[in-house]
Amino acid sequence: MDNTTTVTTQTKPRTKASTSGRVNVRFLAVTAMLSAVAYVLMFLDFSVPFMPGFIKMDLSELPALIGAFSMGPSCGIFVCLIKNLIHLTITSTGGVGELSNFILGVAFVLPAGLIYKYKKTRKSALIGALTGMVVMGVLSVFSNYFLTYPIYYNFMSKEAILSAYQAIVPWAKIDSILQCLVCFNMPFTMLKGLFSVFITMLVYKPLSPILKGRQS
Fold first, then answer.
1. Of 29, 79, 84, 136, which one has the greatest count of Cβ atoms within 10 A?
2. What is the pTM of this model?
């Protein structure tokens, strides 16, 4: 008869607290990384032919949209916040431009993240992102009219800004800043969002396992 005692080692189950801790660390790491990318993208801006030269196109909302899909709407909002807080160190608008950028960024990523969180399919991601794009475009009219452009008037007269828009389509009757914002800035902002939506739809699937820390 074998008197050897067999010792069974029981694996300690993962606790909810330890799992939550790992999730929080990943959330912070992903948010920080995407915020850094968004900040860099703010400088990679370029002019477009159908807008005045002082308005630039950039894709700094792209990382925020990816964050909203991968880690939830709050991640996207934090990315928008952090990139603008960092940009405050070199602001030329007294923080008003950054505030406007933050508001529009949240208007874009929040609907997208919420809709995708409710139903995680490619179709719902597209619907959410397009919804956010439209909300951002509409809100840009009010944000620019009440926040951003009053700051521009300190550096460039209202008449000069209006003339810059009129030069784009000299045959059209454009006689107010509000009309300019509706006819030019709103479509421009939606187009800017559309670029982010398109790129996100292309890159999100391969990036998702990396951001979430799991095997594809």
1. 79
2. 0.84
